[in-house]
């Protein structure tokens, strides 16, 4: 304003006032008299410049009783003294609409007259976003899982209370810190490179696992899902992550591995020796007895139980590196190992591909198909068809009695004489490890239908 005031101030001032989108007022610096108001006042306040000039500040201030004129006078005095001042002001339009504005005051000379120039800008959208941001911050601070963000320089710039508690560091120590100094990643690849690549795929996220080294020397194992922050230009501008303390889960998995080792060595070896002794009695000693036949069956059942428990110990862990699995191929391979020469499996053409562990997906189908053969007979017909978020396996057997439907996935459930009671529980554990759900569906007339849902494709 000072620059144009030195040359033809009247024309320049008029041009600015008429074309500015914000509301601009010019007041005498000493008396406060309003000298001019821009045309934008009609769109913002609903008053013509003449009507606006004739009204007192209280009339277009929101909640006039709470309006602090003294505060505004202080700001005006600051502008007179310092040359500029800024404040936020809630105003009221002619129709009663209330909204927030930002007022920028500056002292200048126009046409040789000492003036205060005020620029009033509607910031209601900004205030709403700030309020929404505060709500989000409050919500995030109350989330029980650790939440954090990293900036474009791969430094921590926000942590909620749960993240502070998990790490053992103060909020001040975490802000600006290099995450790799706090969390030791188990990834072979640079985790930041994986995160940066998400800028090209903003709907994706990466899962990282690592160990938090706490100041007191203790450690916690965490799992974090990290997604990029929104950006307009496609360049990496930071990321947000939600972590989870999986220390207890990891300890359980280690216990299961040790348990599986004990089963493999301490149970299978004596069992193999017992089976060998029974074979020697038959072949070397020429013993033939119904008791030996019974002993063979018991040995086989024990071997089946050991195999199933070992499978549970392995399959109960989370699938960490899923890959594309063609379901038709998995079903065909599973059917090849099913003891049925007369049965039929019908696979829908549109079954598609899912993301998972190929070996475990095949084992899931093996157990479902074996369950069908065991309960429906060797000439069973099994259909495998797609669901909107998964697939279904249906047989034409006798079905499951209503009173037993709630128990089919529990340990030990079996209606077959030779069943171990682990087969369907293994199916449930494999589904859970993938993040899927398995349930009993409604078969048409007879038979059993298993539905696997929540499947990632």
TrEMBL record:
It is an enzyme of class 2 (transferase). It catalyses: ATP + protein L-histidine = ADP + protein N-phospho-L-histidine. SUPFAM superfamilies: ATPase domain of HSP90 chaperone/DNA topoisomerase II/histidine kinase, Homodimeric domain of signal transducing histidine kinase, PYP-like sensor domain (PAS domain). GO terms for biological process: phosphorelay signal transduction system. InterPro entries: HATPase_C_sf (IPR036890), HATPase_dom (IPR003594), His_kinase_dom (IPR005467), HisK_dim/P_dom (IPR003661), HisK_dim/P_sf (IPR036097), PAC (IPR001610), PAS (IPR000014), PAS-assoc_C (IPR000700). Residues 85-135, 206-258 form the PAC domain. This is histidine kinase. It comes from Halopelagius fulvigenes.
């Amino acid at each position: 304003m000072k620059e144009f005031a030195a040359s033809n101030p009247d024309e320049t001032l008029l041009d600015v006032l008429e074309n500015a989108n914000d509301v601009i007022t010019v007041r005498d610096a000493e008396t406060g008299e309003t000298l001019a108001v821009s045309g934008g006042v009609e769109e913002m306040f609903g008053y013509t410049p003449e009507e606006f000039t004739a009204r007192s500040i209280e009339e277009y201030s929101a909640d006039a009783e709470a309006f602090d004129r003294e505060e505004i006078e202080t700001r005006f005095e600051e502008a007179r003294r310092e040359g500029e001042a800024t404040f936020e002001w809630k105003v009221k339009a002619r129709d009663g609409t209330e909204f927030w504005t930002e007022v920028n005051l500056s002292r200048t000379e126009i046409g040789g007259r000492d003036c205060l120039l005020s620029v009033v800008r509607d910031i209601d959208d900004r205030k709403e976003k700030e309020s929404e941001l505060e709500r989000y911050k409050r919500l995030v601070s109350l989330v029980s899982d650790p939440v954090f963000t990293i900036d474009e320089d791969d430094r921590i710039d926000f942590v909620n209370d749960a993240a502070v508690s998990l790490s053992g560091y103060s909020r001040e120590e975490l802000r600006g810190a290099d995450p790799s100094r706090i969390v030791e990643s188990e990834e072979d690849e640079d985790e930041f490179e994986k995160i940066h690549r998400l800028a090209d795929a903003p709907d994706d996220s990466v899962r990282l696992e690592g160990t938090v080294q706490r100041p007191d020397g203790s450690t916690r194992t965490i799992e974090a899902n990290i997604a990029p922050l929104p950006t307009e230009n496609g360049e990496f501008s930071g990321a947000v992550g939600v972590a989870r303390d999986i220390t207890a889960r990891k300890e359980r998995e280690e216990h299961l591995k040790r348990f599986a080792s004990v089963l493999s060595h301490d149970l299978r070896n004596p069992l193999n020796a017992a089976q060998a002794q029974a074979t020697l009695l038959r072949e070397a000693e020429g013993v033939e007895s119904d008791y030996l036949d019974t002993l063979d069956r018991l040995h086989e059942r024990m071997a089946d139980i050991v195999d199933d428990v070992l499978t549970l110990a392995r399959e109960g862990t989370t699938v960490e590196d899923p890959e594309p699995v063609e379901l038709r191929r998995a079903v065909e391979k599973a059917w090849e190992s099913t003891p049925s020469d007369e049965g039929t499996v019908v696979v829908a053409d549109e079954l598609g591909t899912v993301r998972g562990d190929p070996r475990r997906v095949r084992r899931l189908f093996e157990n479902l198909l074996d369950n069908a053969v065991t309960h429906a007979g060797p000439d069973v017909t099994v259909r495998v068809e797609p669901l909107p978020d998964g697939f279904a396996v249906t047989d034409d057997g006798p079905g499951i009695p209503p009173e037993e439907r709630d128990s089919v996935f529990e340990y030990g459930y079996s209606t077959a004489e030779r069943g171990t009671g682990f087969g369907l529980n293994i199916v449930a554990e494999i589904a859970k490890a993938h993040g899927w759900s398995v349930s009993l569906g409604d078969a048409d007339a007879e038979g059993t239908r298993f539905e696997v849902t929540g499947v990632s494709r």
